[in-house]
Design brief:
It contains 3 helices and 8 strands. By secondary structure, the chain is α/β, with parallel strands linked by helices. Helix content is 25%, strand content 35%.
Length: 167
């Protein structure tokens, strides 16, 4: 059983209890990849229209003198972090594992002017969502925790990372 820490603040005659709130921001990007050694069609270079839902958890700021009063984190601040760490690098890039023979493919594609993202893992949705979680966690302000990520590869397939599973 989880205990709720309650602190009461008086603001404009309203008593507010400190509580944890989750907020989510969604992102879209186009990325190509190939899975070296895979025994199906995904061994070929192909792409997806990815959808990423980023959920963070924290307590809203309760201070009328702060511009972010009432917010856990400004959605625009979260957007900036995720865009810089995930969307901009991955959008319209081909993600290839450089610990495989795809290293040569990556170098060839780069030499021809293609946007290639070289990673040290098999670029499955599962491994990408772990990578994204690590990148986003490092950038969040103090007191804001990454709660979950949901990376949708197709309309019917997604990988999910959750902090409760990764303590």
């Amino acid at each position: 059983m989880q205990h709720l820490i309650i602190k009461k603040f008086r603001t404009d005659q309203i008593y507010i209890m400190e509580q944890k709130i989750r907020i989510t921001k969604e992102f879209n990007f186009e990325t190509g990849h190939a899975l070296h050694g895979y025994d199906g069609l995904c061994k070929n270079v192909h792409g997806h229209s990815y959808k990423l839902a980023v959920t963070v958890i924290g307590s809203p700021i309760i201070d009328p003198t702060q511009t972010k009063n009432g917010m856990v984190i400004d959605f625009s601040d979260l957007k900036k972090i995720v865009k810089e760490e995930v969307v901009i690098p991955f959008d319209h890039a081909t993600v290839l594992n450089i610990n495989s023979p795809h290293k040569e493919l990556a170098e060839e594609m780069e030499s021809r002017g293609h946007k290639v993202l070289k990673v040290n893992y098999q670029p499955t949705s599962e491994m990408m969502v772990i990578d994204f979680a690590n990148k986003i966690k490092r950038r969040l302000p103090k007191g804001i925790l990454l709660y979950s990520l949901k990376l949708r590869e197709t309309e019917t397939s997604y990988a999910e990372w959750n902090s409760l599973d990764n303590n």
